[in-house]
Amino acid sequence: MSHPEAVVDLLALLAYAELQAFDQMANDARLAPDLHRRAMLSEMAAAEIVNFRRLESRLAALGAEPQAAMRPFVDVLADYHRKTEPKDWYEALIKAYVGDGFADDFYREVASFLDSPDRQLVLEVLHDSRYATFAGEEIGSAITADPKLANRMSMWARRLVGEGLSQAQRVAADNPALAMLILTGVGEQSDLQGLFKRLTAGHTARMATVGLNN
Amino acid sequence: MSHPEAVVDLLALLAYAELQAFDQMANDARLAPDLHRRAMLSEMAAAEIVNFRRLESRLAALGAEPQAAMRPFVDVLADYHRKTEPKDWYEALIKAYVGDGFADDFYREVASFLDSPDRQLVLEVLHDSRYATFAGEEIGSAITADPKLANRMSMWARRLVGEGLSQAQRVAADNPALAMLILTGVGEQSDLQGLFKRLTAGHTARMATVGLNN
């Protein structure tokens, strides 16, 4: 059972996150070492816009004004991206792989608290797994070729997660309806500690897959 | 009747132009005055990637290595975009409207010299007319609101066309097979002067539509 205001908040957060991720990944594509890789990251970016449009339509169908609904999330997402600006191709890939992986796991959990059709919509706009596969393979083979990279990249991944969690707390503090939706949903199904445990386990597994330490 | 090497050159030029246009428009979206307009330009950018992938697949099907085939066009397109970097939202819109409009007219002419399925493919990857409509309406209403803008924007449009033609000459000089395809195709159907006349007429009509002088 989900509160309408909180659902609008959630869809608006997700929509603006897609728009901002588009911007960031389109820009990061310039860091690619060749045209094939540049095209791949550009394509990952482009996929975000398709999802953005779907969320925007749903917001309008719910009677929300999409721009106004997204406004509360503009600064917090801009801050996240400003503080985690990739300096090279591997930082960009890890940001896409670790950051999006973590965020997707979180949204997947929250989707289970929503009613249809919003539940289905949120699940459908999560990132295509072939992009995670691409990013994971790129990172994995780079670390195999240059094991020294692993240490720096592990630190970078920790910084991404830390920054993401800190911005997530800010979102929760500034958007009580959304925070209540999550807390109530979590309370019905398990507990907040269980949620964090699952998110951390997913993150650790992703890191291990590509040869990074958590 | 089209020469295989020239067809590969043409599709590679078009493919890299799409990838570069994605990059430029995704970046220009940051100049948008609000979220709605930013999303619209981001979506225009994303559409380029879908077209890029179609051209890349066709290049591979023709036995070409897409990256190698695109390489001769990297510098010339980078130069065009570097020399025509928009300074504000209206310069970005005019670049999309005037530049893409001119380029699309040119590719539409060249498509008629190609055999199937390349002719059809080139026609299909030209820009969706609803984006030109959006850009045209934005420019038109900005000029109605602030007539002084028209003069500066007309000069900007002239610069875009001048820069585009100068880079096109460089492409022709560096890629004789492609230049021959166009000259032969033009020769069979009409004459080079006729082609330029049609391109100029299309450009003048686009400018007039939004209240700009050629």
Automatic annotation (TrEMBL), chains A, B:
<dbReference type="InterPro" id="IPR009078">
    <property type="entry name" value="Ferritin-like_SF"/>
</dbReference>
<dbReference type="InterPro" id="IPR059125">
    <property type="entry name" value="Ferritin_actino"/>
</dbReference>
<protein>
    <submittedName>
        <fullName>Ferritin-like domain-containing protein</fullName>
    </submittedName>
</protein>
<dbReference type="Pfam" id="PF13794">
    <property type="entry name" value="MiaE_2"/>
</dbReference>
<feature type="domain" description="Ferritin-like">
    <location>
        <begin position="5"/>
        <end position="184"/>
    </location>
</feature>
<dbReference type="InterPro" id="IPR012347">
    <property type="entry name" value="Ferritin-like"/>
</dbReference>
